[in-house]
Every structure is written in structure tokens, then in C-alpha cells.
Write a structure and sequence with these properties.
3 domains, 333 residues, 57% helix, alpha+beta
């Protein structure tokens, strides 16, 4: 609680103090250390905003001058533009069309007339294509304003979809913040060229280009984390469930039972549902996280063969087929 209070106080100081570099870096150190001990904190908005704050701390208040301000803003432009681009690329898969979008938009779609609910699956691919075009358009001077309008409209639409459900409240402020980022960084900016945005002026700008522009491509082959690659709500992540036999379920703490669905032989403990219930955020969707959670569940077992972890690998982009991996407690230990 003391740590949390310090972090909130530092953020407030960043807002009100004229020269906030010390407060920015103090916040980043405390937040970074806290996230090292709990990878569930590596949510996309946390990752994005920490690096944008770092850019502001490194350049915007180094010395007064347009050059330093532009270095900070261009670094933030790289982060925002590539967030849209890779978010769209990650959604170009059949699982987004068949599973993720219907699950997210279900409460909103039920408010529409019957005919309006039946959107052809191929038409839903317009959603990721719009995001890709937004990311590319923001980089260009000619199409920047059009891309900004499209970006703001997208976020307003997402809020219209999410708010009726009352769920995923954690991303509501992120969508609002992204609208503000687009307004501040891109709207009516007819001077900043794509070359100036992309061409690194310093080491930190180059690191940001690597983190947001290059490394997300490696997530598509499973060697870079999904949430560090704008894959939230993309349907393109690993999933997992813990199977607990009827004989072992009573050995688990009572509060966990609400996240388990009963089957004929197994209870299916949904790790993502558990994450939302405990933390109001999605689970960090990496196999190492799933194995770590299952390893904790195994500490309650009496019979190692009666608890298993099933990891469903990322789906094929065209077929949607997922390969399943199974681990029992002996493997996990």
C-alpha cells in the first residue's frame, strides 16, 4: 500500500510540477520493479504508457527547445502508430472473427435489430484492416487527419460495444486516452514527415522502434510476448485451462470454485476468468504464466494425476485450429 501510494503521488507530481523529470524516472523505477515481481502487470497500456513517459522524461524537459520536444513527441508517435498497426495485424485471423469479436460485441449486438446482427464474417475483417490503415495513415502527412478521425471513431465505437456489457472496464480509460494521444500527437500536424518520425535521432528512439516496430513481428512465431505486441482481444494468443477432478476440487480454496465450470469428470478452471475476477485484467497469455499458475494449484493436490494444465496454442490464422499441450503436476514441478 505504501508503494502504491508513492506511485500515485509521483504521477500527481508529474502533472503539477514544472520540471517533472525526477518524478517521472522515480515513478518508472518503482513501477518497473513492481512489474518485475508480477508479470500480470505487463498489460499493453502499462507497457505503452511507461515508455511514453520515459520519452517525455528523457527529452521534453532536458533543455528548453523545439528539438527536444520534437524528439519526445516523435518517439511517442512511433509507439502510438505501431500500436494500431500491430493490433490490426494480430486480428487478421479466423479466431477473431468467429470467437473474440462475438464474445466482445455480444451485449451490444443484442441491442440491434435482428438483421443488423448478422454481419458476414468476411466483413468483420474490415476491423483489423482499419487498424492497419490507421497506423500507416498516421505516419503520412497527406492521410494523417483522415487516419486520426478514423482512430477516434474506432475508439468511440469500441466504447459503445463495451459499455453496455459492463465488462472489460479496465480498457475503457485506455480507449479514451488513445483518443487524446491521437489528438495531441497527430491531429492537424502537417509538418512532421514519416521520415522524421521513423529516423532515430537518439538511442532511445531506436530502442522504441525495435520494441514497437520490429519485435512484435516475432510474436507471430511465438518468440515475443503477445501483450508486448498489441495482441489484446485479437484471438491470436495462447489460452489455458486447468483440469481438476471431482475428487480434488474440494482441496482448492473455496474462493477459486466460482471460476471453475463443472464437466462430467473434470472441473475446468478458467485462468482468464480467474484473472478478471481477482484483478479486473486479462491473464498475461504466455505458457510460462500458465505453468506458474498451475504449479500453485498443484500445491493443493493429493493425487498429481488428478490435476492437469491444458494449454491451447495460438490458432492457425486461416483454419483457427489450435494444438493442445497437457501437463500434469509431476511435469510442472
Amino acid at each position: 500500500m505504501i508503494w502504491l501510494g508513492l506511485i500515485l503521488s509521483l504521477l500527481l507530481a508529474v502533472v503539477v510540477v514544472k520540471q517533472p523529470r525526477t518524478f517521472i524516472f522515480s515513478f518508472l523505477i518503482l513501477a518497473g520493479l513492481l512489474s518485475l515481481w508480477d508479470q500480470m502487470r505487463w498489460q499493453p497500456w502499462f507497457y505503452q504508457c511507461c515508455l511514453m513517459l520515459a520519452a517525455m522524461g528523457l527529452y521534453a524537459w532536458k533543455k528548453s527547445g523545439v528539438q527536444n520536444y520534437q524528439a519526445a513527441l516523435n518517439t511517442c508517435r512511433v509507439i502510438v502508430a505501431f500500436t494500431y498497426f500491430w493490433s490490426g495485424v494480430q486480428k487478421l485471423n479466423v479466431s477473431f472473427v468467429r470467437e473474440t469479436w462475438p464474445a466482445m460485441a455480444g451485449p451490444f449486438l443484442r441491442l440491434l435489430p435482428q438483421m443488423a446482427r448478422k454481419v458476414p464474417p468476411l466483413l468483420l475483417l474490415a476491423i483489423p484492416l482499419f487498424e492497419i490503415l490507421i497506423g500507416l495513415g498516421l505516419i503520412t502527412r497527406r492521410y494523417r487527419n483522415a487516419a486520426a478521425v478514423l482512430a477516434m471513431g474506432t475508439h468511440l465505437f469500441v466504447l459503445m460495444v463495451l459499455i453496455p456489457s459492463g465488462e472489460n472496464t479496465v480498457v475503457w480509460p485506455w480507449n479514451i486516452t488513445m483518443v487524446l494521444f491521437v489528438l495531441i500527437l497527430f491531429w492537424q500536424d502537417k509538418e512532421t514527415s514519416g521520415r522524421r518520425i521513423f529516423l532515430p535521432k537518439n538511442a532511445f528512439h531506436a530502442v522504441v522502434l525495435l520494441l514497437f516496430g520490429v519485435l512484435p513481428a516475432f510474436s507471430l512465431i511465438g518468440i515475443w510476448d503477445s501483450f508486448l505486441s498489441s495482441a489484446l482481444y485479437s484471438g491470436n494468443t495462447d489460452e489455458a485451462v486447468i483440469l481438476v477432478s471431482h475428487g480434488e476440487i474440494d482441496h482448492l480454496p473455496e474462493y477459486i470454485h466460482q471460476y471453475a465450470r463443472e464437466g462430467s469428470y473434470w472441473f475446468f478452471l478458467d485462468i482468464n476468468r480467474w484473472a478478471y475476477g481477482e484483478l479486473n485484467v486479462p491473464v498475461y497469455p504466455e505458457p510460462r504464466i500458465y505453468r506458474s499458475v498451475a504449479r500453485q494449484i498443484c500445491t493443493y493436490d493429493k493425487n498429481p494425476s488428478e490435476i492437469k494444465l491444458m494449454i491451447r496454442k495460438r490458432p492457425g490464422p486461416i483454419t483457427g485450429h489450435r494444438e493442445d499441450e497437457f501437463y500434469d503436476c509431476d511435469h510442472l514441478r
